[in-house]
Amino acid sequence: AADSGAARAEHDDRVGGRGFSGRRKKGRGPFRGKMYSEMNHRSRSRGGPGLRARLEEDDGDVPMSEAHDGPRSRYLPYGPRPNRTANIHITVRRDLPAPERSSGTSRDGGRRNWFKITIPYGKKYDKSWLLSSIQNLCSVPFTPVEFHYDHNRAQFYVEDATTASALKQVSRKITDRDNYKVVIIINSSAPPQSLQNELKPEEIEQLKLCMSKRYDGSQRALDLKSLRVDPDLVSQSIDVVLNQRSCMLVVLRIIEDNIPELQSLNLSSNKLYRLDDLSELAQKAAGLKILDLSRNELKSDRDLDKVKGLKLEELWLDGNPLCDAFRDQSTYIRSDGHELPPPIAFDVEAPTTLPPCKGSYFGSDDLKVLVLRFLQQYYSIYDSSDRQGLLDAYHDGACCSLSIPFGPQTPPRNSLNEYFKDSRNVKKLKDPTMRFKLLKHTRLNVVAFLNELPKTQHDINSFVVDICAQT
Q1: I need a surface site. Which of 179, 186, 281, 394 has the fewest CB within 10 A?
Q2: For residue 292, what pLDDT is reported?
Q3: What pLDDT score was predicted for residue 30?
Q4: Residue 351: pLDDT band by 50, 70, 90 thresholds?
Q5: Residue 115 contacts by C-beta under 8 Å, 6 or more apart in sequence?
Q6: pLDDT of 435-445, one tens digit each?
Q7: Sign for the pseudo-dihedral over CA of 236, 242, 244, 249
């Protein structure tokens, strides 16, 4: 007993018990509650089955035992007692990618995911630069829906979880001119407001009337090109946007109810960026043979899977971003893996003679001599092994640029890869910073750039020169 009393005295001395023996110890009066060490630790597990049920929603169990086995474990006031072996059973919910945890429900009952993309301080960025920079690094093509600025933020919506996950990976990978990282925040969202608007019955009747005017019964052809700006609809303040599901479903219903014999449908120039809403077209118009989807915003040939149920003879896709992925026209036409039938030939007699081509127009003989002398001197130097002599042909403030067009006659893109990085094709290049950067300023830079281009050989006699004005 004496030994144990000494032990208690030593303990009290360590916490100041003996030195302040006359001081009343806090909490030692008649209303003293239990010390923490005297409490039943089982009561600490609050939340009961409800908490466990929330934790056990998913994948697997990870047992953790003997968490405080060490000989000198630190005292944790809210942990297990040190002298007791703790068997802890934790059910872990493995993190799923954020986009897959939430989804909306479309009007037709299917599950559809929408996500709001937020770029903090995005208002300071040009829209074209921001979206092109994101798209360049994003692993999947995407179409921003309802891009807008909210206070100092830039925001837009995307529809599927795969795109949202890919955009999340781009965060902090873009550096702006001030050397700041561009942050991209992904949040699940309800569908954008513009996609929730449904046409009223009286508006549907007006749309039906508009479609009847655009239908050619003799050809069984319906022309819905640029439907949103149709004068009849605009005058009635009816906004029919075919890249919105509600509007497209109304159009398909009108086709099914009134012209199921439809054979040709023109949906060009309607800013369609996906074809999910056309998946039922094969049931609505089983005899459709011609479908025009040109000049829309389709980015992937995978979208065409949505209309593979149609027995089409013609499918028009020119003017869509997906066409840029094909090396040439033959690849583009046969991208479905099926050999096309031979082209249809028309028995039309071709003219046997063509009008003669007119020659150059110089205005005067003196001007002709001057221009031809310049061309001969310029191209003799340009076709030589050293183009430095062209410096005298350019002004100090001169500038030039290279543009590589892409059309049916263009060589395969891989043969131009070396020069494509310098191409300033303004039809494709929207970033104003890059447009300026790709201009070669001053005569030194112009000639230095010309020296990098491949060797050439020009036939001066083949040139046709027209001088419209002279000073």
Answers
A1: 179
A2: 93
A3: 43
A4: low
A5: 99, 157, 158, 159, 161, 163, 164, 186, 187, 188, 189
A6: 888 888 898 98
A7: positive
Q: Is the pLDDT of residue 397 over 90?
A: no
Q: Are 329 and 408 in contact (CB under 8 A)?
A: yes
Do the strands 104-105 and 215-216 form a parallel or antiparallel pair, or are they unpaired? unpaired
Structure tokens at 400: 């030039």
Length, in residues, of the chain? 471
**Could you tell me the pTM of the whole model?**
0.39
Phi, psi of 186 (to 5 degrees): -110, 130
Q: Give the torsion through C-alpha atoms of 281, 282, 288, 291, to 10 deg.
A: 50
With a cut of 50, say whether residue 11 has pLDDT above it. no
Residue 405: per-residue pLDDT? 73
Alpha helices, H only, 214-348: 231-235, 245-258, 281-284, 329-333
Whole-number Å distance between alpha carbons of 408 and 324: 11
Q: Could you identify the residue written with the tokens 């013609």?
A: 314
Helix orientation angle between 245-258 and 201-213, rounded to the nearest 10 degrees: 60
Q: How far is CA 450 from CA 380, 388, 389, 405, 439, in A?
A: 14, 9, 11, 18, 13
Return the ∠ at Cα 207 (arms to 205 and 210), rounded to 5°.
Answer: 115
- Measured CA to CA, the distance from residue 114 to residue 102 in angstroms comes to 8
If residue 63 lies in a helix (H) or strand (E), which one and from where to where? strand 60-65
Tell me phi and psi for residue 213, to 5 degrees.
-70, -25
- Residue 130: which of 69, 414, 142, 226 has the closest Cα? 142
pLDDT digits (tens, 9 = 90+) for 142-172: 888 888 888 899 999 998 889 999 999 999 9
User: Which has the closest alpha carbon to 362: 470, 216, 202?
Assistant: 470
